[in-house]
Amino acid sequence: MQSDSVLIEAGWTGELPISHFSPFFMDYAEMESPTEHGEYYYFDGELEEEKGGHVQMDTFHIISVVIYCISFALGVIGNGLVIWITGFKTKRTVKSLWLMNLAVADFVFVLFLPLSIDYVVRSFHWSFGQVMCKLNSFVLVLNMYASVFFLTVISIDRYLSLGDLGRRWRCSTVGRAWVLCGCVWLTSAGLSSPVLVFRDTFEFRGQTVCYNNFHEHDADTAAMRHTVMVAVRTTVGFLLPFSAITVTGVLLAYRVHRSGSVRLSTFSKMMSAVILAFFLCWAPFHIFSLMELSVHSSRTLLHVLQAGFPLVTSLAFFNSCINPLLYVLCNKKVRQLLRSSCLNITKQSLRELSQSVSVTECVTVPGNVPSEASVAMTKL
């Protein structure tokens, strides 16, 4: 960790991308004003932001925090219910295994949201140290990939399990599904591992920043590494999965049109909602990530990204609480199971409360106050 004065005096050319304003990756320090140094924008604090722009940016940040909080609450409850239902209340099948792993990915994802909320609330000051800077970013990126990959696996599996393909695909067992789940997690971890290498912290004007330190002294190397990371993240983490989900969705819609099956029609509508939610939640984030690569060419673009990155990141987070609603809670059988489970829990709680009250009433009252039993004996 180095101070800003040391870095500036040494002619530091490390990259501080604008996506620092995204708690998802936290790459860029929020300082008052930029000055161009080499190929990237840096901040010397000598210029002042326009007051209106600062207020507008604060508004976007407040909105993003609200969305983070909603995502955290709904994500913990929704994904927790999915894990409980698929892991403990229903028979273990290939489908339930996909859903459980998706829910685990989203559940871990939202559990780390309080760190991101704290980061935005503190005006992008990281107060959890370098190790947590690396770990938090690694877990978020890991579960971004895992969540997207499991959505893709579910879409492909549902298509292959229908019709003539289904008779051949049903040879897939729970054991093989576990192997595929392991491959998804290992692939996600491998794609996320660069975060553990490049994440770093440093102090700038009293703020501790968690960012991607691609190279402190070589702007060309930093630019190359940044470009590669964004390209891989956008291609592998969005374009390819979205293409697969879209293609399977279109093929399912075609089957619905041909067969007229009500069951297929219901699933097709759900898949359409999944595709739309996936695109609306993730497309803005990846578009902003690509725009960030050209941030050094436009001050206007810089301010747009400053204001918008927390907002588009919050939309990406929101997908993690939408998934259980679309995939599980829209299922009639699951709703019935959830309703009956809630009723059973309520009945059991009332029964335990009633027993507790009965036991309390039967306890002998201490002191010189006679109990019902002693009064009865006196009368005899």
Automatic annotation (TrEMBL):
<dbReference type="GO" id="GO:0004930">
    <property type="term" value="F:G protein-coupled receptor activity"/>
</dbReference>
<keyword id="KW-0807">Transducer</keyword>
<keyword id="KW-0145">Chemotaxis</keyword>
<keyword id="KW-0675">Receptor</keyword>
<feature type="transmembrane region" description="Helical">
    <location>
        <begin position="230"/>
        <end position="254"/>
    </location>
</feature>
<dbReference type="GO" id="GO:0006954">
    <property type="term" value="P:inflammatory response"/>
</dbReference>
<keyword id="KW-0297">G-protein coupled receptor</keyword>
<comment type="similarity">
    <text>Belongs to the G-protein coupled receptor 1 family.</text>
</comment>
<feature type="transmembrane region" description="Helical">
    <location>
        <begin position="97"/>
        <end position="117"/>
    </location>
</feature>
<dbReference type="InterPro" id="IPR017452">
    <property type="entry name" value="GPCR_Rhodpsn_7TM"/>
</dbReference>
<dbReference type="GO" id="GO:0007204">
    <property type="term" value="P:positive regulation of cytosolic calcium ion concentration"/>
</dbReference>
<feature type="transmembrane region" description="Helical">
    <location>
        <begin position="307"/>
        <end position="330"/>
    </location>
</feature>
<dbReference type="GO" id="GO:0006935">
    <property type="term" value="P:chemotaxis"/>
</dbReference>
<dbReference type="GO" id="GO:0005886">
    <property type="term" value="C:plasma membrane"/>
</dbReference>
<feature type="transmembrane region" description="Helical">
    <location>
        <begin position="60"/>
        <end position="85"/>
    </location>
</feature>
<dbReference type="InterPro" id="IPR000826">
    <property type="entry name" value="Formyl_rcpt-rel"/>
</dbReference>
<keyword id="KW-1133">Transmembrane helix</keyword>
<keyword id="KW-1015">Disulfide bond</keyword>
<feature type="transmembrane region" description="Helical">
    <location>
        <begin position="137"/>
        <end position="156"/>
    </location>
</feature>
<keyword id="KW-0812">Transmembrane</keyword>
<protein>
    <recommendedName>
        <fullName>G-protein coupled receptors family 1 profile domain-containing protein</fullName>
    </recommendedName>
</protein>
<dbReference type="GO" id="GO:0007200">
    <property type="term" value="P:phospholipase C-activating G protein-coupled receptor signaling pathway"/>
</dbReference>
<dbReference type="InterPro" id="IPR000276">
    <property type="entry name" value="GPCR_Rhodpsn"/>
</dbReference>
<comment type="similarity">
    <text>Belongs to the chemokine-like receptor (CMKLR) family.</text>
</comment>
<feature type="domain" description="G-protein coupled receptors family 1 profile">
    <location>
        <begin position="78"/>
        <end position="327"/>
    </location>
</feature>
<keyword id="KW-0472">Membrane</keyword>
<dbReference type="GO" id="GO:0004875">
    <property type="term" value="F:complement receptor activity"/>
</dbReference>
<keyword id="KW-0325">Glycoprotein</keyword>
<feature type="transmembrane region" description="Helical">
    <location>
        <begin position="266"/>
        <end position="287"/>
    </location>
</feature>
<dbReference type="Pfam" id="PF00001">
    <property type="entry name" value="7tm_1"/>
</dbReference>
<feature type="transmembrane region" description="Helical">
    <location>
        <begin position="177"/>
        <end position="198"/>
    </location>
</feature>
